[in-house]
Amino acid sequence: MTAPTLPAPDAATPDGPGACDDTGRGTAPRLRHELRAVHALVHRDLLRLASQPVHTALMLVQPVLYLFILGGGLAALIPDATLGVGYQTYLFPGVLMMTVQTPTIMVGIRLITDRQSGYLRELLMAPVSRPTLLLGSCAGGTIVSTVQGAVLLTLVGTVGLPYDPLLLMLLLAGMILTSFTLTALALALAVTLSRPEVFNMLLGLVMMPLVLLSGGFFPIKNLPGWAHAVAAVNPLAYGVDLLRRCIALRVPGEAAGTGVRWFHWQPPLLLEGGLLLACGTGALLWAAHLFSRPE
């Protein structure tokens, strides 16, 4: 994979992207440089996605197996009356979460490996700010993970959900928001580490418990009390609940009251979305702060 071509300084700003005169005429050229850098990094991620179809297909295998093998097996054991819907329908938001989760983690691993290989040092020589490079990585990871999640949306009919355009748009919007938050969190962790082995070890320790306590496989209300407290600070739980409640807006009977609760009170849908956005934005700003420090 060749490195993306990042913008060179504009001829109108010979002193670099930060140069401007007293009238501020250098602001617009600098903004163009920053946006072109973000575009180049997003384009790099999309090229990688298009050039590795086998790798992409393999990442989709696991969630599909969970949906049809685990979901199909447990559907025969769990009565529909327990959840209000069939188990495969209940499991579908959790499967969407699993689908977007893996590409977001890869963004953090790639940042560390780029630092080790020297590729990141070459990027830092571009006439753009460091936070812009991090924003480009976050945008690329968000788009790639959303694209992979969108592939799973073609299976909604197999789990008893309608091919409703509005439902698909709601789920797509929920995946974009969730993907952004998880990508930002992965970058915030990656900028503090220097070895991918440590990154993988930390993810192995915390990711599986967070997935199990997300409500993607069984209702959070059926878990012990201490698990409710963990779910209340678990971004995966808010992502799964957001997707499930998007389905409930279009499908009557969907188990929308089985997710996150604050002292027996379920936060509104917009509040959950706002919390996810705030979490992702805060993580990205923190990562940008750390990334801006000279090495």
Structural features:
295 residues; mainly alpha; 11 helices; 68% helix; globular
Textual characterization of the structure:
The chain is mainly α. Helix content is 68%, strand content 0%. The chain is globular. The two termini are 26 Å apart.
What's the short version?
The chain has eleven helices and no strands.
User: How much beta, percentage-wise?
Assistant: under 5%
Give the proportion of residues in helices. 55-70%
Largest sheet: none
First and last CA, distance: 26 Å
Low-pLDDT regions? 11-24
Order of helices and strands: HHHHHHHHHHH
Radius of gyration based on Cα positions: 21 Å
Q: Any chance you could write out the topology, listing elements then pairs?
A:
Blueprint (H helix, E strand, L loop, with lengths): L26 H25 L1 H23 L4 H4 L3 H31 L1 H6 L5 H23 L12 H26 L5 H17 L12 H7 L3 H16 L18 H23 L4
